[in-house]
Amino acid sequence: MELSVSLTVNGRRYDRQIEPRLLLVHFLRDTLNLTGTKIGCDTSQCGACTVMLDGVAVKSCTCLAAQADGSSVTTIEGLAPDGQLDRVQEAFWEKHGLQCGFCTPGMIFATKALLAANSNPSAEQIRHALEGNMCRCTGYQNIVRSVQAAAAAGAR
Amino acid sequence: MYSANFDYHRAKSLSDAQRLLASNPGAKLLAGGHSLIPLMKLRLASPSAVVDIGRIPELRGISKSGDGIRIGSLTTHAEIAASADVQKSAAALAEAAGLVGDPAVRSRGTIGGNVAHADPASDLPTVLVALDAKIVAIGPKGERTISADGFFTGIMSTTLADDEVITAIVVPALAKEQGSAYVKFSHPASRYAVIGVAASVTSSGGTCSAARVALGGLVPHATRANAVEKALVGGGLDTTAIGTAAAKVGTDLGNEVTGDIFASAEYRTAVAPVYVKRAIAAAAARAGLA
User: How many C-beta neighbours within 10 Å does residue A119 have?
Assistant: First the structure.
């Protein structure tokens, strides 16, 4: 069975024929070549694949592309115009909230979801909000600092 | 990871979902997908067809009904955790919904999918058993209401029929001087319950007049801790009485305790009374007793 789906990704509309089993993360990476979204655990635990789906942070390894038909997706490539950084990206840059960078796109979207709901989170609230995003390099200290810096800069 | 191939059908309404289920034998229902998709990726489930019910508006939302709170089956964990009505009259459920997975999982996962999936390490089944909730399902023979206590029959097994669709969960209204709570020992990566305990206690002049305590995470399915409940009812709800009752959980667990690479059955058995005690104490505090 082939399905026709239409998704708006980073502001651009894509109409594609897909297999129903195609996951959103594979649609983004393999069909659209948007490889900023990472596949980490592939079991909805690590958060590396987190993207915005209609304004909600979701794990794209646990969502069928078919479920996102008609929806709007933002990936790390679409967060800011080319050559510019979103305020959350800027904060991760400034506070060195990454080492290898593999978890960073997911961390950024988890942070954006948090700040949209709570513009001034405590360190504890930040850690709770990032429970679904694993980082194996930083020990999380600088990630928390990055989120605090993003909040202080008024990022949403 | 790719699942096996399947046909995909999107239901526009509840009756459409029932028609699609009837015309696609072997089909599975897809709501938020946070239980079914992982199973399909691991090929532990390979349905020939998937009926996506995720966009049926009538299955979504929380409302007060005559006998309690009615939660549509497509309501997400995030919506349940944030609901003032649920927080007020089913504190344990709001608490548990807020502890499922992580924020991204809670934004997609639904209560109906969660109970239909019946993962033994899940949170909501434990709470629904303790709160004496009812599961409303519709099938070819019409609608039926199933008590949560008895709905869960084994690992990922329930009394729901293949051709039934869960439409709502009904949680009874809070009695006077009744409180509930859920406490959990989370797996650090998956956040699934290594041990989950839900308690609901009712007081009458300082004496425990009713108690329901349910266990999850360490047994094959959410189940009541009858020995603990029996020890509570008729007694006080002070720290000593709660501790004595919680210690009875060993009798309830018997030889059914699950062990895995993260936590052995012996370890879970040893830690369980602590969580039982905390759950009862928190419920008693909410009932205005402690």
Answer: 12
| CB spacing of A19 vs B5 below 8 angstroms | yes
Contact A20/B40, CB-based, under 8 Å?
no
Q: List, as ranges, residues 72-111 from A with C-beta within 8 Å of B.
A: 110
Q: Is B2 on the interface with A (CB under 8 A)?
A: yes
Domains and CATH numbers, chain B: 7-52 (3.30.43.10), 178-286 (3.30.390.50)
Shortest distance, CA B31 to any CA of chain A (angstroms): 9
- Quote the mean pLDDT of chain B: 96
Residues of chain A positioned with their CB less than 8 A from the CB of B191: 131-132
How far is residue B179's CA from residue B173's CA, in Å, rounded to a whole number? 11
Exposure string of B60-84, with b = 16+ CB inside 10 Å and e = fewer, is bebeeeeebbbbbbbbbbbbbbbbe
Answer whether A49 touches B (CB < 8 Å): no
Is B52's Cβ below 8 Å from some Cβ in A?
yes
Q: What is the pLDDT of residue B289?
A: 62
Separation of alpha carbons B216 and B152, rounded Å: 11
Cα–Cα distance between B32 and B26 in angstroms, integer?
19
CATH code linked to domain A3-78: 3.10.20.30
- pLDDT at residue B255 greater than cutoff 70: yes
CATH architecture of A87-152: Orthogonal Bundle (1.10)
Write the residue in A21, A57, A67 that is nearest to B2 by C-beta.
A21
ipTM: 0.96
Average pLDDT, chain A: 97
Strand order in the sheet with A50-53: A12-18, A3-9, A72-74, A50-53, A56-59
Longest CA span, chain A: 50
Q: Which of residues 94-153 of B touch A (CB under 8 A)?
A: 101-105, 107-108
**Sequence ranges of the domains in chain A:** 3-78, 87-152
Measured over the CA atoms of residue B155, residue B160, residue B162 and residue B165, the dihedral's sign is negative
- Start-to-end CA span in chain A (Å): 40
